[in-house]
Design brief:
- This protein is of the alpha+beta class.
- The protein has helices at 29-35, 110-113, 128-146, 153-176, 185-201, 208-214, 219-230, 234-252, 257-263, 269-280, 284-296; strands spanning 24-28, 45-46, 50-57, 60-64, 67-71, 75-79, 84-89, 94-100, 123-125.
- Strand 4 and strand 5 (67-71) form a beta hairpin.
- Helix 3 runs antiparallel to helix 4.
- The two termini are 33 Å apart.
- Residues 188-290 form the HTH araC/xylS-type domain.
- It holds the Pfam family AraC_binding.
- InterPro entries: AraC-bd (IPR003313), Homeodomain-like_sf (IPR009057), HTH-like (IPR037923), HTH_AraC (IPR018060), RmlC-like_jellyroll (IPR014710).
Length: 297
């Protein structure tokens, strides 16, 4: 498979101050600016942890895996490990920033557990009571993060982070009209195993049958799990993952398009071009030119 994490992109340009003994950190954009970290955020870089950011003042722009959007008070951004990020905050911008590793959160249902997937939405604009509710949770999380641990600190932090994640999951389902009920049990676990296998094998095969065989299930069972959890077909999940990696490689490396096609398992560059155009609505070359132009601005 393509190990995107090994490609020549810098890791986040500062080390989070983790809570003692825990994989959780909290800061603000103003504190990062005081440390001198902010100027280097505009260049493409990766995280090796999760980051949830909610803008509290000012404005700026953000790009996650080549998707660029404007930020203003109430913008919430969730970036996942190894996503490619470009962040250009203006001097008046501030934000609350929560950072945590993949192992820190509580084990939630499969439906919520998949919310940290790189194929899911990365940003939302919060308004009114929705913003107030989320900021209350962040405020409680910050208070507990700063409080001396009296024995239950880790459990309190994990539960408060879970509340924040559940708030985001609710917003995601409302905004994107995804399936309403949390999915657990066999279908949820099967989907989780499928996504893990897909991350290992997307450059080897794009056939639903191959994934069903690897997971020791029928293609029908795999399709039902994908419909229940993601609201789409297994084939669409596979192709979305391949298209994501193609966008990353085109936008943030100098690899020739033919080399990218081979890395992603296409025997012919023309087949890769047709696949990419169908998924992204532009040719690989046009996407690369547009991505480079956006980075130069």
């Amino acid at each position: 498979m393509v190990d995107f994490a090994s490609l020549p992109l810098p890791v986040f340009p500062y080390v989070p101050v983790w809570r003692s003994g825990l994989d959780l950190a909290m800061t603000t954009l103003r504190e990062l600016r005081d440390q001198g970290s902010v100027p280097s955020l505009a260049s493409p870089h990766r995280l090796d942890f999760h980051q949830i950011l909610v803008v509290t003042a000012g404005s700026g722009s953000f790009a996650v895996d080549s998707t660029r959007f404007e930020c203003r008070p109430g913008t919430l951004v969730w970036t996942r490990p190894n996503q490619v990020i470009e962040f250009s905050p203006r001097s008046d911008m501030d934000a609350d920033v929560i950072m945590f590793t993949e192992t820190f959160p509580l084990h939630l249902s499969a439906r919520v557990g998949m919310f940290d997937d790189v194929l899911r939405p990365t940003h939302w604009q919060l308004y009114g009571s929705e913003l107030l509710a989320f900021r209350r949770v962040v405020s409680l999380l910050r208070e507990e993060f700063q409080r001396p641990d009296e024995g239950l600190g880790e459990e309190l932090l994990k539960h408060l982070l879970a509340v924040a994640m559940l708030h985001i999951d609710q917003m995601c389902r409302r905004r994107h009209k995804e399936p309403g009920a949390a999915v657990s049990g066999e279908q949820g676990e099967l989907f989780l195993r499928f996504r893990r296998e897909l991350d290992r094998s997307y450059a080897v095969t794009r056939l639903v049958e191959d994934y069903a065989a690897a997971l020791n299930c029928s293609t029908r069972a795999l399709s039902r799990a994908c419909r229940a959890v993601a609201g789409t077909s297994a084939k669409d999940v596979i192709d979305s993952r391949v298209a994501l990696e193609a966008r990353r490689l085109l936008g943030h490396t100098d690899l020739p398009i033919g080399a990218i096609a081979r890395r992603l398992g296409f025997s012919e560059v023309t087949n890769f071009g047709k696949f990419f155009t169908r998924r992204v609505n532009m040719t690989p070359g046009a996407f690369r030119r547009e991505a480079r132009a956006a980075q130069a601005r």
